[in-house]
Amino acid sequence: MQLGLVGLGKMGFNMRARLRDGGHEVVGYDPRPEVSDVASLEELAEKLPSPRVVWVMVPSGTVTNETIVGLAGVLEKGDLVIDGGNSRYTEDQPHAHLLANKGIGFIDAGVSGGIWGLTEGYGLMVGGSEADVERVMPIFDTLRPPGPREDGFVHAGPVGAGHFAKMVHNGVEYALMTAYAEGYEMLAAEELVQNPQAVYQAWTNGTVVRSWLQQLLAKALKEDPNLAEISGYTEDSGEGRWTVEEAIRLRVPVPGIAASLFARFLSRQDDSPTMKAVSALRNQFGGHAVKRISESG
Description:
Helices cover 50% and strands 12% of the residues. It is an alpha/beta fold. The chain has two domains: 2-158, NAD(P)-binding Rossmann-like Domain (Rossmann fold, 3-Layer(aba) Sandwich); 167-267, N-(1-d-carboxylethyl)-l-norvaline Dehydrogenase, domain 2, CATH 1.10.1040.10. A seven-stranded mixed beta sheet has the order 2-1-3-4-5-6-7, sandwiched between helices. Strand 1 (2-6), helix 1 and strand 2 (25-29) form a beta-alpha-beta unit. Helix 8 (161-189) packs across helix 12 (255-267) and helix 9 (196-202) packs antiparallel against helix 10. The longest helix has 29 residues, at 161-189.
């Protein structure tokens, strides 16, 4: 198939390569001329024969919205836009309606795989009409991992379902990463355990907790045994927050995901005001010793 791809960052760049390796003709556009095949969205549309398919792989929020609006201005009836970024699912229906006014189809696609997707394939969760999804299945089949289609691809439902599924996926990812990290800290704290990395390495085969994330932690510990080169400051890209917000709306308890999100917030505090207050309270009601700034440095 012929495809336009907007956004050639870490994932978009590799997706273009994987699609080309799979025999597809890909015209990529990015504001950075050194990686872009064309100079503008207008030129991108001109290079693609009708009916066109354009995959958007840019940061969520304002950039995605501006890109969708820009494509609505250069595409035509019968064309199709796929938003493969991490957009919030509530933004999908407005984008679909905007494009539908010009007769342009819309699919939301949650994409997982990171920088490894080029060689391993990408997990795909999509939302849209049956006809639109079927139309671009050759693209999805090339991007997904090898093996049965259902083991790496799901048509989750109508527009919005793909990004909702990806949001929950990332919320689960938050909780898994925190659990693996807490396990590492416990192993490192016990003198009986001589090599925490070796334990994590052993867990990569045969255990019930083995996973790709767990393997990546074993790899990271092998490269930097004490994680001395890494700060504990941890950002969140939005999906974890959205998952907790939607869980509140749906009245679904997600204590593990919520705790992992708040752990990321805690990681950004050099000196926790909460724990300062706890220390002050212990001193007030029980006379417990308080470590003063002058004592701790």
